[in-house]
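Sequence in, structure out. Go.
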Amino acid sequence: MVERSEFKGKPVLIIKRAEDDKYPFAFGLSKARLILENLEEIKRFVEENTKEEGA
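Output:
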């Protein structure tokens, strides 16, 4: 579930596992750009660590 909001007048995205998620993941434009610039490394990180977990 993804919501758009504002923090101190700046746009933010809020990603939740469920509607009542106590600890959502929120970030603004600057961090969104960093995520996009490093998306392949993030994917690799998830793949490598998912294999180790056995998930």
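Check: The radius of gyration is 14 Å. The beta strands are 2-7, 10-15, 25-28.
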